[in-house]
From TrEMBL:
Keywords: Amino-acid biosynthesis, ATP-binding, Diaminopimelate biosynthesis, Kinase, Lysine biosynthesis, Nucleotide-binding, Transferase. Gene3D superfamilies: Acetylglutamate kinase-like. GO terms for molecular function: aspartate kinase activity; ATP binding. It comes from Bifidobacterium samirii. Belongs to the aspartokinase family. It comes from the Bacteria. It catalyses: L-aspartate + ATP = 4-phospho-L-aspartate + ADP. Catalyzes the phosphorylation of the beta-carboxyl group of aspartic acid with ATP to yield 4-phospho-L-aspartate, which is involved in the branched biosynthetic pathway leading to the biosynthesis of amino acids lysine, threonine, isoleucine and methionine. This is Aspartokinase. GO terms for cellular component: cytosol. GO terms for biological process: diaminopimelate biosynthetic process; homoserine biosynthetic process; lysine biosynthetic process via diaminopimelate; threonine biosynthetic process. The keyword Amino-acid biosynthesis applies. Pathway: Amino-acid biosynthesis; L-methionine biosynthesis via de novo pathway; L-homoserine from L-aspartate: step 1/3; Amino-acid biosynthesis; L-threonine biosynthesis; L-threonine from L-aspartate: step 1/5; Amino-acid biosynthesis; L-lysine biosynthesis via DAP pathway; (S)-tetrahydrodipicolinate from L-aspartate: step 1/4.
Amino acid sequence: MALIVQKFGGSSVADTDSIKRVARRVVETKKRGNKVAVVVSAMGDTTDDLIDQAMSIDSNPPEREMDMLMTAGERISMSLLAMAIHAEGDRAHSFTGQQAGFFTDARYGAAHIKAVKPDRVKAVLADGDVAIVAGFQGINAKGDATTLGRGGSDTSAVALAVALGADVCEIYTDVDGIFTADPRIVPTARRIPCGGYDEILEMASCGSKVLALRCVEYAQRFNMPLHVRSSFSHRRGTLIVPDGVDPRSLPNID
């Protein structure tokens, strides 16, 4: 039995129909005999909408209050996904970053993860249920909510996978993996079937938007295999593995 962490970005949970599709995907993965923990971003443009609302009230809002506001988006998507999984006949429990044990430094808006202690997540998985965690957020030593900055949900997913000892961290997006260029702009772009951390880090540092730089760095530090794939198809995406690991040995790749 493999333990898989699946992360779904904003485009994958953009509306209720998308959330229902994600729920089916999660339940399908679990029915294959896997334990599944899920990390979700806010729905669609929710984060940008929240920022716009804040700026319409105060052009220089307090950083602490902005982080309190920013955590709202993921709370919506995590609870709706739990409901959708319940509607599919399975059981799921949703957790905020704080409830899932994400401890960060005190920096608002761009916090760094200091420790992940996912005791409640582990308990849910031990019971055979799905655990859903709000990405992009944690709690500092003061007990205040913090956010990890752009791409923070990717980092949340990898950090959770490491803390749980997962077999793979799957990053679901709206394209079939990592390409040599943006396939929505360059039709001749080629998908990279498999790569190492250094190669993907170089692409991320050069502006590739598929994976956040911090996410890949975290995965490399702890040798966590990644599978970047589309939530809109079941095709194999891009596998990022440590040296010496056979990509074909990873679970749930097809």
